[in-house]
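Researcher: Here's the sequence for the chain we discussed earlier.
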Amino acid sequence: MQLTLSQENAVTVVTPEGPRLDALHTLGFKEAMRKVILDTQGPLRLDLQAVEFLDSSGLGAIVALSRTMGQDRPLELAHLSPVVTKVFRLTKMDQIFKIHGMADGAS
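Model: Thanks. This is the structure I predict for it:
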């Protein structure tokens, strides 16, 4: 999966380019993110603005990457679409991750 990186103060912002983070795309996403984790320092913010669909394997990949980074290096999320917001709320992961810009009205 193609990732775009940018810098926002001390935070590296990682934006996946594909509209789906599902079983078909999770392996490529995890491999690309592991490289980013190794090549950067400090907190990461995963900007999911282009992701329109997230299934359990995509959610599992995000959780696994967060664990890989550890407590001293947070993984934040940003710009969740209504569908992705719903997944995070239903699984209560919205209480685990710091999220910037969740979609309003997702139920």
